[in-house]
Amino acid sequence: MRSRRLVPSSIPISRAALLVAHVLLCSLPGIVSSKSVILSSIKIFTTHEWMPTKPTIYFHCQGANETILPDVKEKDFLYIFSGEESWQPLTELPEKKCRRCGLYEHNTLKSDDVFDEWELCPSNFVHGKYVRLKRNEFNATFVCPQCTAFGGTNLWLQG
Ligand SMILES: *[C@@H]1O[C@H](CO)[C@@H](O)[C@H](O)[C@H]1NC(C)=O
Ligand SMILES: *[C@@H]1O[C@H](CO)[C@@H](O)[C@H](O)[C@H]1NC(C)=O
């Protein structure tokens, strides 16, 4: 009898503990959910379109839709974003997994130009920040508060 009473009472306790842990984890944004990456700033050093039209620059990750950066039209101009723009976040990164992404420019006559294409990984981010500089092409700063190069989940909480 004693052991039978222990079993039913221990189940609600562990369920309650799980629930509490779940609520705690979910109230800290991003520890459980996937990792949102925003574009915090970008400067392009060139455009590839030879026609006198404004370029259409977009970010694209494999398996996802293109994200057009509607404001980025001029070269050598530093565009700064808050992360609240309608097209943000740029992408989401799965847990400990990279996505192949790139920055491109639409082309009217031939296939789109590539500024750069690379593996965007959670471990790229140091204290939630990642600067990607490609010589003569662009300099972009990405922010992902939930990403960290150290694999921990609380570094970003401290700063
Ligand atoms: C891409 O965009 C289309 C139309 O807006 C949407 O239905 C689809 O779910 C999107 N795909 C991804 C992978 O986000
Ligand atoms: C690239 O951008 C970052 C962030 O705006 C800046 O700190 C850095 O000096 C820039 N580097 C170059 C070469 O423009």
TrEMBL record:
Name of the protein this chain belongs to: DUF7953 domain-containing protein
Biological source species: Musa troglodytarum
Pfam family, one: DUF7953
Residues in DUF7953 domain copies: 35-145
Signal listed as a keyword: yes
UniProt-listed InterPro entries: DUF7953
Signal peptide, first to last residue: 1-34
Protein keywords: Signal
